[in-house]
Amino acid sequence: MRLFAAIVMVICLLAQPVFSQNPVSAGFNRVSVGLNAGVMTPFTDIKQKDYFPKFDEMSIGGGLNLEYHFTPVFGLRGQFLIGKLDGRDDSQNRRFETELWEANLSGIFSFSKLFSPRWSKNDRIDIYGLLGVGMVSYRSKVFLNEELERSYGYTNNGQDKDSRLNDLVVPVGLGVRFNLSQRVDLGIESTFRFTQTDKLDAVSRIFSKYDAYNYTSVGLIIKLGSHTRSMKWASPSVVMYPGDVNRMEFITERISEVDRRVEIIDQRLEETTYDREIADLRQQVQAIDQRQNELNNRMSTLADSRPAASVAESSVAALLSVYFRLNSSAIDNFNYERIASAARFLYANPEVGIELVGHTDITGPSAYNHELSERRAQSVYDVLVNDFNIDPARLSIFHRGPDDPLSQQNLSINRRVDFIIRSN
Q: pTM value?
């Protein structure tokens, strides 16, 4: 009785966190019935081997189950089992026969849902354990050299049946259950039954351990109820922790709202950036026009000092400065076309040369800016010489770093290389 009370207490303590009801758990089928059949093997004093019974010591048994699932993790099961045990010890020419039935109440604990609630196959496969307590009722006979040696639950030398013997039994086992359809499951289970008797094999010895037997079975489970969902296969997080799920949904909605607001802000920033870039381009155009006027004046001075020179004035307007990105000396396609215009000007005016003057903005150390402005001038030089076959003697490189800015506000205007026309 103490063992019985201890097992009931363990089941109640393990099940206590999952008995609480909540609105989320409504709308599930909780009851199921099952039929199973399998093999019963004894672990008694009379046996061929200590641990693994032989094939002729196995017999057929069957059972009926009724289950109620409080949550996907925990349920209670009542079971009625009927079968027969056969064992032998050829070394002693002994064998026994026992017919029994058993009724028990067990707690079913889903290991897969308890320890891995986010497993993707939780709605199809369930790995579980069970622990219970019940009553086994039996009659047993033992034979020595095929002669009846002793019996329990029989009279008249084993010919007539008498009252069965009843003892406590504790089933402990593991199983795997498969969700075949909305109404049908398949279960595979192996359970050891530990009894409080030493008479299952009709042999009772002093200081002998209690007898036990194993029942390994396959069964079909029918889920009952008017709902379309079964509590056995529900999501543990939704049913058992609805508060956490609601909080997660709330947090997810807030995150989505923040994402929408960030998208709106990004769109506004893009529009603002676009407007700012348009304004910058206008300033660049104004600076280019101003620089072009300076170049035209220099060309006029050169033409006055060298009346014999024939400078193609139509080409002078094409000598626009080459502009660079921040901290870069690379030439993009747009500025490549300006260098091509400068090459065209040199082809048309073979008597003049060009000074390539590199500039930077004021960001960064002065020494680095001078080196960067020289690299920018060198990049333009390399394109004119390598791509357009301009005579290197007609070109010269100068660098001024940040010392000759065109604009005090728009720093991008100052990241450039100017073309300065000189006489050869």
A: 0.54
